[in-house]
Specification:
Layout: H1 12-44, H2 48-76, H3 78-97, H4 102-130, H5 134-165, H6 170-173, H7 175-189, H8 204-227, H9 232-252, H10 262-266, H11 268-298, H12 303-309, H13 311-328, H14 335-352, H15 361-386, H16 396-433, H17 440-473, E1 484-486, E2 495-497
Antiparallel strand pairs: 1-2
Helix pairs in contact: 1-2, 1-4, 1-5, 1-7, 2-3, 2-4, 2-8, 2-16, 3-4, 3-7, 4-16, 5-12, 5-13, 5-15, 8-9, 8-16, 11-15, 11-16, 11-17, 13-15, 14-15, 14-17, 16-17
Length: 508
C-alpha cells in the first residue's frame, strides 16, 4: 500500500464523538415524536385523519432524498454536508417546537426529513473514511452500531420524560443543543480527505427518478395502512414506484456518472447487508410499535415508565455491539455475528409473543427485551461496518445512504404490514369471541393483545429470514486472515484473503 494511504488522523476518536452524537439525534427523532404526538394533536387541534402526516411528512422527505443526500456528500464534501445537515436539522426542529398550527408542524417535520437525508449518509461515510485499521474500525462501528440500533429506544425514554414533565414541544427543542454541539465539534476535529470526493456531474434524471420512486414506495405503504392493501390509491402508488425505480435502474446502467453506481448494490456482501438490515428494521418496528401500545394501554404504564421499560433492551444493544460484535469482528467472519445475532433477536421476539393481560414484566418482557437487544446489537455492528464493504472512496456517501434507505423503507413496510396484520387479527378475535365475552372492555383488551401477539409472530419470522439472508449472502472473511483467494470488488478484480474484510481505501 502506498505510504500516503497509511496516514492516521490523530483526532479520529474525538471526531467519532460528534459523528455519533449526530447519528443519535437523527435516530431518536424517529421515535421521540411518537410519544409526544397525542399531546401535540390535542394542543394544535390536529384531526385523527391528519395526525399520521406528522410522522409521514418526515418519512417521505427522509426516505425519498437519502440517495440524493449521499451523492451530495460525495460531491460537495462529507464534512460540509454533515455540518449543513446539522444546522438545517436544528432550524427545522426549532420551527417544529414553535409550531402554531398543524401546517407549520408538518412543514417542520418535512424539513427535518430533508436535512436528515443530508446528515445521515454523511455521518456514516465520514466514519468509513476516518477509520480504516481493522481493530479500530471494529470499535468505532461497534459504538456507531449501538447508537443506530438503540437510538429508537432512547427516543421512547426521552420522549416520555420530556412530554410528561415539560411538554411535547421539547421533543423538538432538544435537538438544537445536540446539533450545536455536534456541528461545533465537527468544525474543530472532523477531517476528510478531499481526494476521496466524487467530482462527477450530478445525475439529475437519477435524482428525480429515485426520489419520486422512493416517495411513492414509502407513501404506498403508509396508504396501505390506512386505506387497505387493495385500495386503488395504494395499488397506484406501488405501480408508480415499480415503474419509477425500474426506470431508475435502467438510467443508472446507461449514464456516465450515475447517482447510484450499480456496482454499489450488485456486490454480494453489500446486497446482503441492505436486505438483512431492511428486514431487521421491520421486526424492530414491530417491537417498538406494539409493545409501546401494550405497556401503556393494557398494562397502564405512564409514558416515562414505558420508556424506561425499554432500557434493558438499550443496555443489551450496547453490550452486544461494543462487547460482542466489536470484540469478535476481527476474529470471526461477519456472517457468524450477523446471522446468530438476528437469530437471538428472533428468539427474544418469540418470548414476547406470549404476552397476555397478566404478563409479568420481570419474568417475560424483561428476558425478551434483553435477548432482542443483545442480538440486534451484535448484528448491527458488523452490518454498519460492512455497509461500505470494498467500496471506492468516491462512492462512500451513496453506499452509506443505501443503509439508511433500507432502514427507512423497512420501517415504512414494518409499520404498515404489521399494523394491518394486528388490526385483522384483533377484529377476527373480537368477532369469534363476542358471544362468550364477560364484558366489552375485557374483550377489547383481549382482542388487542391477540392482535399484537399475532403481529409479533410475523416479526419473528421476518427476523429469522434476515438471519438466513445474512448467512447466505455475506461471505467475506474476518480481518487479518492470510489465505489468499481471488475475489472481485466493484468489478476492480482486487485480490483479497479468504479471511480478509476489505475496508475503504483512503487517499490522503
Amino acid at each position: 500500500m502506498p505510504e500516503k494511504a497509511t496516514y492516521v488522523d490523530p483526532r479520529r476518536w474525538k471526531a467519532l464523538i460528534f459523528i455519533a452524537l449526530a447519528q443519535l439525534m437523527v435516530v431518536l427523532d424517529a421515535t421521540i415524536v411518537n410519544i409526544a404526538l397525542p399531546s401535540a394533536q390535542e394542543d394544535l387541534g390536529i384531526t385523527d385523519a391528519n395526525r399520521q402526516w406528522v410522522i409521514t411528512a418526515y418519512a417521505l422527505a427522509f426516505g425519498g432524498l437519502l440517495l440524493f443526500g449521499g451523492r451530495v456528500a460525495d460531491l460537495w464534501g462529507r464534512k460540509r454536508t454533515f455540518i449543513t445537515g446539522l444546522i438545517g436539522f436544528a432550524v427545522a426542529s426549532g420551527l417544529g417546537g414553535a409550531a402554531a398550527d398543524q401546517a407549520m408542524l408538518m412543514g417542520a417535520r418535512a424539513l427535518q426529513g430533508v436535512f436528515g437525508a443530508l446528515l445521515a449518509p454523511a455521518a456514516l461515510s465520514l466514519l468509513a473514511v476516518t477509520f480504516t485499521e481493522a481493530k479500530e474500525r471494529a470499535k468505532a462501528f461497534g459504538i456507531f452500531g449501538a447508537i443506530a440500533g438503540g437510538g429508537g429506544a432512547v427516543g421512547l425514554i426521552l420522549g416520555g420524560v420530556l412530554t410528561e414533565y415539560l411538554n411535547w414541544r421539547w421533543t423538538f427543542f432538544v435537538n438544537i443543543p445536540f446539533a450545536v454541539i455536534a456541528a461545533t465539534g465537527a468544525l474543530l476535529v472532523v477531517r476528510e480527505p478531499a481526494e476521496s470526493r466524487n467530482t462527477s456531474r450530478l445525475d439529475v434524471p437519477g435524482v428525480i427518478l429515485a426520489t419520486l420512486g422512493l416517495v411513492s414506495l414509502v407513501y404506498g405503504f403508509t396508504r396501505a395502512e390506512s386505506d387497505g392493501w387493495l385500495a386503488g390509491p395504494t395499488l397506484g402508488l406501488f405501480a408508480a414506484a415499480a415503474v419509477l425505480l425500474l426506470t431508475f435502474v435502467l438510467v443508472e446502467s446507461k449514464v456516465k456518472a450515475p447517482l447510484l453506481p450499480l456496482r454499489v448494490v450488485t456486490d454480494r456482501n453489500r446486497a446482503g447487508i441492505y436486505a438483512s438490515l431492511g428486514l431487521a428494521v421491520i421486526g424492530m418496528f414491530g417491537l417498538f410499535l406494539f409493545l409501546t401500545y401494550y405497556l401503556q394501554i393494557v398494562k397502564g404504564y405512564t409514558p416515562v415508565t414505558t420508556g424506561l421499560a425499554f432500557l434493558p433492551m438499550i443496555v443489551g444493544m450496547i453490550t452486544g455491539s461494543t462487547q460482542i460484535g466489536a470484540r469478535l469482528m476481527t476474529r470471526v467472519r461477519p456472517r457468524l455475528l450477523m446471522a446468530p445475532g438476528f437469530t437471538v433477536a428472533a428468539l427474544g421476539m418469540l418470548v414476547l409473543t406470549q404476552i397476555d393481560l397478566d404478563t409479568s414484566y420481570p419474568t417475560l418482557i424483561l428476558p425478551g427485551f434483553l435477548l432482542m437487544g443483545l442480538g440486534m446489537g451484535t448484528a448491527f455492528m458488523p452490518a454498519m461496518s460492512l455497509a461500505t464493504h470494498g467500496v471506492q472512496p468516491r462512492d462512500a456517501g451513496v453506499a452509506s445512504a443505501m443503509v439508511n434507505t433500507s432502514q427507512q423503507v423497512g420501517g415504512a413496510i414494518g409499520t404498515a404490514l404489521l399494523n394491518t396484520i394486528a388490526a385483522s387479527a384483533t377484529t377476527a378475535y373480537a368477532t369469534s369471541h363476542a358471544a362468550g365475552a364477560r364484558s366489552a372492555d375485557l374483550l377489547k383488551l383481549q382482542s388487542m393483545v391477540h392482535g399484537y401477539s399475532t403481529a409479533i409472530w410475523w416479526a419473528v419470522g421476518i427476523l429469522a429470514l434476515a438471519g438466513v439472508i445474512a448467512f447466505t449472502f455475506i461471505n467475506t472473511g474476518r480481518p487479518g486472515g492470510g489465505s489468499p483467494v481471488a475475489s472481485s470488488q466493484d468489478g476492480e478484480g482486487a485480490a483479497l484473503g479468504e479471511d480478509e474484510v476489505p475496508v475503504p481505501v483512503m487517499a490522503h
